[in-house]
Amino acid sequence: MSSQGPMDVIYILSNGRSGSTLLDLLLGAHPRLWTLGEAHMLPWEVRWGGKCGCGVPHQVCDFWKPLLPVLPLEEQEVPVELFRGDTPNGGGKVLRWSHLSSFARGQASGRWAQAARRYGEANQRYFELVLQAARQHKGEQVSALVDASKDPYRLLWLESSGLFNIKVVHLYKDPRAFVFSMTKSMLPRAAGKVARFTGRWMFENSLFSVMGKRTFGARMYHLRYERLASDPEGTLADLGGFLGLPMPVGLSQSFRTADTHGVSGNKSRWESSSVRLDQKWKSKLPRHYISAVGAAAWPLRQVLDKINGHPR
């Protein structure tokens, strides 16, 4: 990845609870990469006392403490947390009607174009300061940042700003596994929620597919979680070829020992477990839900599985 021109960023794009934290940690353990975790969650995490990837609040973390006073996190017009915070325009919405025409064009358009540029500028300052600190912390060999924010609207605006050289890893999970992750506390009587999250998987991954076709092309790599969890070393080697970053052998065994200061993510960020394939849905999701979700999502799943492991 180039060290000149726009800043190099690897963006993890996915539904929630689809393995993005695992992929984020694996990439962050690479000697030339520094992961921010869910970068746009930092203002919210600081406000509400969230923990850094190292296990302590960001305000007392050795990495984040000196950065927080100088990061451009509180700009009100286009804040970093615009798409994922407790701001008037935030909240992590799945469907944003006013942005859908931008997806069709492949970039922020109309009244959003100028705002996307300002958003990109704020994030550029944020990322530059983090990259400087990362090189002091990890070494001058750090050449790119990993942003595991997952949100497609954020990605569209960052790309539209023209300030970043972005490569995208579209991570997706078997729709039945995703639906189980989102509804397991409500089972077995969760028909409405099962339908809702099946629709969410289909809608979000359709948006991600459109972004691949319209905007990123060969800069988007499609990766199925089950492949990563079943064969982490082989998958990482293939992914490294896409990123132009050879992966160290044994990274999937050693990644838990890496120094990490990623933002947010699920509780697995602070666990010590190894890479393992979680398929509890096969025994715990009622059979009629398995059949219904599988049938509804089958066409899109077939499209994604066909290009799994390849840029679009």
Q: What is this structure, in a nutshell?
A:
The protein has 312 residues and is of the alpha/beta class. The chain has helices at residues 20-28, 42-48, 100-105, 112-138, 152-161, 175-183, 191-216, 225-230, 232-243, 251-254, 281-284, 287-307, and strands at residues 7-14, 33-35, 144-150, 164-172, 220-224, 310-311. 43% of the residues are buried.
Q: Please state the overall shape, judged from the principal axes of the Cα atoms.
A: globular
* Average of per-residue pLDDT values: 92
Instruction: Give the spatial strand order of the biggest sheet.
Output: 2-3-1-4-5-6
Helix content: 40-55%
Structural class of the secondary elements?
alpha/beta
Largest sheet: 6 strands, mixed
Terminal Cα span: 19 Å
Question: Beta-sheet strand percentage?
Answer: 5-15%
Rg calculated over all Cα atoms: 19 Å
Number of DSSP-assigned strands: 6
User: Which sequence of SSEs, written as H and E, runs from N to C?
Assistant: EHEHHHEHEHHEHHHHHE
Low-confidence stretches: none
- Count of DSSP-assigned helices: 12
Walk me through the structure.
The protein is an alpha/beta fold and 312 residues long. The chain has 12 helices and 6 strands. Strands 2-3-1-4-5-6 form a 6-stranded mixed beta sheet, sandwiched between helices. The protein is globular, with a radius of gyration of 19 Å. The mean pLDDT is 92.
Annotate the secondary structure layout.
Elements: E1 7-14, H1 20-28, E2 33-35, H2 42-48, H3 100-105, H4 112-138, E3 144-150, H5 152-161, E4 164-172, H6 175-183, H7 191-216, E5 220-224, H8 225-230, H9 232-243, H10 251-254, H11 281-284, H12 287-307, E6 310-311
Parallel strand pairs: 1-3, 1-4, 2-3, 4-5
Antiparallel strand pairs: 5-6
